[in-house]
Amino acid sequence: xxxxxxxxxxxxxxxxxxxxxxxxxxxxxxxxxxxxxxxxxxxxxxxxxxxxxxxxxxxxxxxxxxxxxxxxxxxxxxxxxxxxxxxxxxxxxxxxxxxxxxxxxxxxxxxxxxxxxxxxxxxxxxxxxxxxxxxxxxxxxxxxxxxxxxxxxxxxxxxxxxxxxxxxxxxxxxxxxxxxxxxxxxxxxxxxxxxxxxxxxxxxxxxxxx
Length: 210
Ligand SMILES: [Zn+2]
What we know:
Blueprint: E1 11-18, H1 24-33, E2 37-41, H2 43-46, H3 68-75, E3 80-82, H4 95-113, E4 119-120, H5 129-137, E5 142-143, E6 148-151, E7 155-158, E8 170-174, H6 179-192, E9 196-197, H7 200-209
Helix pairs in contact: 1-3, 1-6, 4-5
The structure holds zinc ion.
């Protein structure tokens, strides 16, 4: 279970969840500026099934084009990781149901993008020991939480009282309307504060090698 990356360097990590909204400008931005991000795809969002998660903001399914969008992100160098099939509160599910959510999503993402996820992000940050066991059994090597969320307009909502970025912070965004614009504001803000954007997978691999 990981909620921040141990490092002394002024580096933070950007992660983007769900997939209800698929802003094409965002893919171009990530590709052209080579910004390292990690996407946590959730089936019902990507495939526009059911009701959008409120935490992602008011979703309109703009461009919800299923997995093609995530294949474009993959082609831009973005790892597509696991965020369940249906976005349940995993603490309310027994082990077999949790395992279906995690393994099912990994299998689907592998089929759609060609690469099996290695990271898992639990919906709402809710998990228990069964979740960790299911993650291991589905081939997921880490359960990734976050240190701050990014609101519409690129505003950072900190979980710490001094409202400062810290080395190794993991920021959580959602695929929502105007992501490209909000993302530009956020990236500028991070750079003004003297932080770089880190490659999460590279840092995790280095941490595991120690
Ligand atoms: Zn989510």
